[in-house]
Amino acid sequence: MKEISIIDAKNHVDEKVKIGVWLTNKRSSGKIAFLQLRDGTAFFQGIVVKSNVSEEVFQLAKNVKQESSLYVIGTIHEDKRSPFGYEIEIEDLEVVGESGDYPITPKEHGTDFLMDHRHLWLRSKRQFATLKVRNEIIRATYEFFAKEGFIKIDSPILTGSAPEGTTELFHTEYFEKDAYLSQSGQLYAEAGAMAFGKVFTFGPTFRAEKSKTRRHLIEFWMVEPEMAFTHQEQSLEVQEKYVAYLVQSVLDHCDYELDILGRDKEILKRYTQLPYPRISYDDAVELLNESGKFNVTWGEDFGSPEETYLAEHFSKPVFVMNYPKAIKPFYMKPHPTRDDVVICADLLAPEGYGEIIGGSERATDTDYLTAEIEKAGLNVDDYQWYIDLRRYGSVPHSGFGLGLERAVTWITGESHIREAIPFPRLLNRIYP
Q1: Boundaries of each Aminoacyl-transfer RNA synthetases class-II family profile domain copy (predicted)?
Q2: pLDDT tens digit string along 194-209?
Q3: Which of 150, 169, 281, 411 is buried most deeply by CB count within 10 Å?
């Protein structure tokens, strides 16, 4: 008798197997017990027919508590009525670990309650599906960049300087010196690009931003590619190709999970069609104001309503290009014919999910970069290593950052970013 996983049930129809599972829910009549089971790979139903098992096994099936762990032995059958398509007719079961008074019962619970029990809430079907999609996006990320000739480098989490300004940093002491939790791996990725040509970093980043929106986390993961000898237009082509690759990989490998989430796959397929539209910041302001729904002053950053309108207008991810210099970080390359904008782009996702990528061509002139660092109120001495990248064999280079959780939230169709990471860190939450 073979021990299998639920996800492999399709390969063992009419075979007797053994599976290690947890009980998510149950119901029973006088003659049949229906057990809803999971094992970390999928969810399906186990049926215990009273006339086909011992009285002891049937009573155990009727009385076993939610989230007890079990070994079940039985025969796999095709079940066209269920979303999964298969079930197991159980002839024997063994309790491995009992569970009593499981706090998350099959009823409505408040968000705070569920987040307080996040360590258990991860076991539920929707959270399972969302985080399986997250895993596929991570897998596809490594695959994509390997195919494109990138290597992964690891940027430090503890840094002595800020890439995005000092107001959103978590400060700590580093042997009597100031240190900060990383806001971004980008500056270090630029050093990597000068050594290896094309690199990407992938790791946790931290923003001490006191925001409570459905798009913001305090701790989140960023994918940050950096490319030498690359101008902005070339970078945009990599960005859209990467995003389309992620969506297609989820469609190819997470069909079951997307069904659990009720995600419209036809809409996702639309996001694999390239190229993505491009619009300048100037034209975006004009489009917003002409809609009659907004009154945007040139120079303002866009908020959630504006980003939502722009992406919905195109019904696909859209690049908004060349934002005002005053609202962007110091490292972005100035526009060749204008001194009020920089060469950059944000990729806005449709369906109300907003920015999922921010990128730019990087400044290469040492004097300009030094002046911009000073203008940002930063200590130029802290950035000498970064300026060195321009002193010794500078080249045009570009890069971008994709927020993993924002991408997961968008692709899964979840309503809040907290669902896209196993243990979210929010303004009011650091437990569990």
Answers
A1: 131-432
A2: 999 999 999 999 999 8
A3: 411
